[in-house]
Design brief:
Elements: E1 6-10, H1 28-41, H2 45-50, H3 60-80, E2 88-91, H4 95-102, H5 108-125, E3 131-137, H6 141-152, E4 157-164, E5 167-173, H7 174-186, E6 191-194, H8 207-217, E7 229-230, H9 241-251, H10 258-267, E8 272-275, H11 281-289, E9 294-297, H12 301-312
Length: 319
């Protein structure tokens, strides 16, 4: 009999939307989590999510703490419903901080101001308009790397998010990103789409942010995770506080290796993966990377109930 293993994944910037927590509007654990985050920042994050009217939700300094709060809130709702703890967790970019909170390695009260600092450091690293990001579809890693090398012309453009087979995000100087899209299409890429982001996240242009973040992380306490956390930078788990700090600092200016992360889930025998937070981006990517892993987004209370019912009736074996 096959043992069922669970993974939880936590989304990052890009999964936010106005009203994204409406399915949990009356859940006590969710509202308490947002109240805790709001107190930490002195801002009403729930109001920002519920009725954003001027684009504030999409500003990096707001998006990152909001997505952290949303992921932790859904995690707490899962636990409140009696959901079992997973065998492994990971988060995409900012979601890695959420994963560390869920794993008990990072206190939520510390994580909220930390991700606000991270967001500001990343935004400050490159002036608005200088950098860009784009999703390139239908091309392999080697061909895209060659396209980026040809397009650089003394500037920076590089692959930064390996999201799924045939879906890679590039980032760097805006002009170089535009040239790389054209170069990728000449090598067979189906599409290249500029992303509505304010900085070239995870590119080497973020090294100033990584240095600032490393210094800030030294003042933050970390415990050994109670659940294994796979980090974006090296697809490895770390238990020592100094190693966790180093992985988080490095992550700011190096690629998110999401394909390898989901493949690592499969290698560990994971059979189900739950996306803990708003949106369904990671669930969709997971289906493309490891179709044998059944994915489900916990985007409202009904989804949690359905997930628990599915686990109770799972016939693949016992945990």
């Amino acid at each position: 009999m096959v043992t069922m293993k669970l993974a939880f994944v936590f989304p990052g910037q890009g999964s936010q939307s106005v009203g994204m927590m409406s399915g949990y509007a009356h859940h006590p654990a969710v509202r308490e989590t947002f109240a805790e985050a709001s107190d930490a920042l002195g801002e009403d994050l729930w109001a920002l999510v519920a009725a954003d009217s001027d684009g504030a939700l999409d500003r990096t300094v707001n998006t990152q703490p909001v997505m952290l709060a949303a992921g932790v809130a859904v995690w707490r709702a899962w636990l409140a419903a009696g959901g079992p703890r997973p065998d492994v967790v990971a988060g995409h970019s900012l979601g890695e901080y959420t994963a560390l909170v869920a794993a008990g390695a990072l206190a939520f009260r510390d994580a909220v101001p930390l991700v606000r600092f991270r967001a500001q450091a990343m935004q400050d690293a490159v002036p608005a308009g200088v950098g860009a990001m784009a999703a390139v579809m239908g091309i392999d890693e080697a061909s895209l790397a060659a396209a980026c090398a040809d397009a650089a012309q003394g500037q920076v453009v590089e692959a930064v998010n390996f999201n799924a087979p045939g879906q890679i995000v590039i980032a760097g100087h805006a002009e170089a990103v535009e040239r790389a899209i054209a170069a990728a299409k000449s090598r067979g890429a189906k599409r290249g789409v500029l992303l509505p982001v304010s900085a070239p996240f995870h590119s080497s242009l973020m090294k100033p942010a990584a240095l600032r973040l490393a210094a800030r992380l030294e003042a933050v306490s970390f415990a050994a995770p109670a659940i294994p956390v796979l980090h974006n930078a090296d697809v490895a788990e770390h238990r020592d506080a100094s190693a966790i700090r180093a992985a988080l600092a490095r992550q700011a200016s190096c690629p998110v290796r999401w394909v390898e992360t989901v493949q690592a889930f499969a290698a560990r025998g994971v059979t189900r993966a739950f996306e803990c937070g708003p949106g369904r981006v990671l669930t969709g990517l997971g289906k493309r990377i490891a179709p044998a892993i059944e994915g489900q987004a916990l985007d409202d209370g009904d989804a949690i109930a359905a997930a628990l019912a599915a686990l109770a009736g799972d016939t693949t074996g016992e945990r």
